[in-house]
């Protein structure tokens, strides 16, 4: 028995979509849905078009702007357009009569095709609505055998972390190797139940966004959302339920997302946010509460020129400070010049990005056990030690997760697979987290600390213990208000003191404390001391 390609009713043929139509033109339920805002449906002598698409949110009405024309169209007069609620039978009967007059056809010529179209349109809308509210999976990228082999070869390399550092440099990361590797590992924690987060600090034009964009470009497209600014409501109205789950949310500028800071930091901590809103019931007219939620786990990263405003967000994140030295600026300009001159091979850059992305696609969620964690210790000077300790734990897990193809999979008593952290993983994590932990231990923020260290170097070089504010402003080329803020902060922390006033040179200051930063750095040696003890205790680990 041959498969029918059309239905017939009183001589009217209603064609069914072919298999090829589904592949090339996007047919669903006999409707051409290749352009969602312009749905098309064709029978032997009629052509239906829904201009503007259909509302898939409100299911108690089916209001559309419908165009019916004869096929083939002999004259523009043989087309009828009207806005109608297809669930209103009175409107529908009137619509059919008017269409018959306009198209010069009988009732039976239009009635069955129209009702069949409405039935299919209803099925299409319900399917789209179900698809929208149902959990969705990110598109799976199937790697070719060649791509898989190349990515696996790098993942099994004993110098994996150095290889990744080299690749990041090749795709545009200038000098910021440790920051780049730390960000790369933080991005990997999107696969964990409690991911890590990062905030990149630096002055305007210092390269914050370049650091973020370079590293995020190594992440597969299906695992990231990048935005310049964010509002609170955007978080609570995702296109589908698991839109944020197992993703990286990168905000290029946190200063444009001030109103979203509260839900963002709660999403960082709890991996889920909930709020209730009041809406009017369209049927009863009564107000009712509606529960809105967003679910992670999600890795949140952003860049900012400010510090204090984001204190509550900062202690939930790794703090990265970009290099703002003149040498770094020269290196960045050299790269920009080479890029403009065509010296940089962009095809090679693209290949390296694809390789880094494919490597991450081969990493699968797996349980990680760190038997050495109880013997590790953070410096006493670290602020918010409870949160920082969790960050330390997760960072070590991220290093182990990255090396999963170099680890032997073991099985616990319940038959679940896991891999074990090695001392080499801890050594890598220690090296990358020191600078961030140092920033967390410091009373001064990154910009203030940089200024104070430069100030001490300047004063020492002139072999005197005092300095004048006017001389420092001219030497460092600072705005007067910026210098005033820095000096006020140093005075409040008793790091300097005012000792005099000169009418021409203005206020004179003296540096009171010289070794505070050195003391903080020395406190971080506890990480290496504990690691050395473990290496001695477990020489085969």
Spatial separation of the terminal alpha carbons: 70 Å
CATH topology (level 3) name of the largest domain: Rossmann fold
Structural class by SSE content: alpha/beta
Beta content: 15-25%
Strand order, largest beta sheet? 10-11-14-9-15
Radius of gyration: 32 Å
Number of strands: 21
The overall pLDDT, averaged over residues, is 85
Oligomeric assembly = single chain
CATH superfamily of the largest domain: P-loop containing nucleotide triphosphate hydrolases
Q: What is the tally of helical segments?
A: 19
For the record, the CATH architecture of the largest domain stands as: 3-Layer(aba) Sandwich
List the domain count as a whole number.
Answer: 3
Bin the helical content. Answer: 40-55%
Main sheet: strands, sense, barrel: 5 strands, parallel
CATH class of the largest domain: Alpha Beta
Sum up the structure in keywords:
single chain; 3 domains; 541 residues; Rossmann fold; Arc Repressor Mutant, subunit A; alpha/beta
Structure description:
The chain is an alpha/beta fold and 541 residues long. It has 3 domains: 6-133, no CATH class; 145-363, P-loop containing nucleotide triphosphate hydrolases (Rossmann fold); 446-520, Arc Repressor Mutant, subunit A (Orthogonal Bundle). 44% of the residues lie in helices and 19% in strands. The chain has 19 helices and 21 strands. Strand 12 and strand 13 form a beta hairpin. The longest helix is centred in the N-terminal third of the chain and has 27 residues, at 107-133. The chain starts with 5 loop residues before the first strand and ends with a helix. Residues 1-25 have low confidence and may be disordered.
């Amino acid at each position: 028995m041959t498969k029918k390609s059309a239905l017939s009713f009183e001589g009217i043929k209603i064609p069914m979509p072919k298999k090829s139509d589904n592949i090339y033109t996007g047919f669903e339920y006999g409707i051409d849905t290749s352009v969602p805002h312009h749905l098309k449906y064709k029978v032997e002598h009629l052509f239906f078009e829904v201009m503007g698409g259909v509302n898939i949110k409100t299911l108690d009405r089916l209001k559309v702007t419908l165009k019916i024309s004869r096929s083939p169209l002999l004259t523009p007069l043989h087309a009828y357009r009207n806005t109608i609620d297809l669930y209103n039978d009175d409107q529908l009967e009137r619509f059919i009569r008017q269409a018959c007059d306009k198209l010069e056809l009988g009732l039976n010529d239009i009635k069955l095709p129209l009702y069949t179209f409405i039935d299919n349109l209803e099925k299409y809308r319900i399917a789209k609505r179900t698809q929208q509210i149902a959990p969705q999976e990110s598109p799976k990228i199937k790697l070719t055998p060649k791509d898989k082999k190349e990515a696996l070869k790098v993942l099994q390399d004993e110098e994996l972390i150095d290889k990744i550092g080299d690749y990041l440099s090749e795709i545009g990361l200038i000098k910021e190797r440790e920051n780049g590797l730390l960000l790369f590992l933080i991005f990997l924690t999107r696969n964990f139940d409690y991911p890590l987060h990062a905030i990149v600090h630096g002055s305007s034009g210092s390269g914050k966004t370049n650091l973020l964009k370079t590293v995020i470009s190594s992440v597969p497209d299906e695992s990231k959302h990048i935005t310049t600014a964010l509002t609170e409501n955007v978080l609570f109205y995702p296109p589908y339920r698991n839109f944020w789950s197992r993703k990286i949310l990168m905000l290029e500028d946190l200063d444009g997302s001030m109103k979203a800071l509260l839900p963002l930091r709660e999403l960082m901590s709890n991996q889920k946010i909930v709020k209730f809103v009041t809406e009017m019931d369209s049927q009863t007219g009564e107000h009712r509460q509606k529960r809105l939620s967003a679910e992670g786990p999600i890795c949140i990263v952003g860049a900012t020129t400010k510090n204090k405003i984001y204190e509550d967000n900062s202690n939930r994140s790794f703090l990265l400070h970009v290099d703002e030295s003149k040498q770094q600026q020269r290196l960045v300009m050299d790269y920009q010049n080479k890029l403009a001159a065509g010296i940089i091979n962009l095809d090679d850059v693209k290949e390296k990005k694809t390789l880094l992305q494919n490597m991450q696609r081969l990493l699968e969620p797996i349980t990680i056990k760190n038997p050495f964690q109880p013997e590790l210790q953070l410096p006493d000077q670290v602020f918010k030690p409870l949160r920082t300790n969790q960050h330390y734990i997760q960072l070590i897990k991220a290093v182990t997760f990255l090396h999963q193809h170099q680890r032997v999979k073991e099985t616990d008593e319940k038959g679940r697979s896991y891999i074990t952290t090695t001392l080499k993983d801890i050594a890598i994590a220690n090296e990358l987290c020191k600078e961030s932990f140092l920033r967390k231990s410091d009373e001064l923020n990154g910009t203030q600390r940089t200024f104070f260290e430069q100030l001490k170097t300047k004063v020492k070089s002139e072999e005197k213990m005092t300095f004048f504010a006017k001389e420092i402003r001219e030497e460092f080329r600072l705005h007067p208000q910026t210098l005033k803020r820095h000096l006020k902060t140093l005075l409040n922390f008793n790091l300097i003191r005012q000792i005099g006033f000169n009418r021409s040179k203005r206020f004179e200051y003296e540096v009171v404390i010289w070794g505070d930063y050195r003391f903080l750095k020395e406190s971080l040696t506890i990480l290496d001391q504990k690691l050395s003890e473990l290496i001695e205790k477990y020489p085969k680990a």
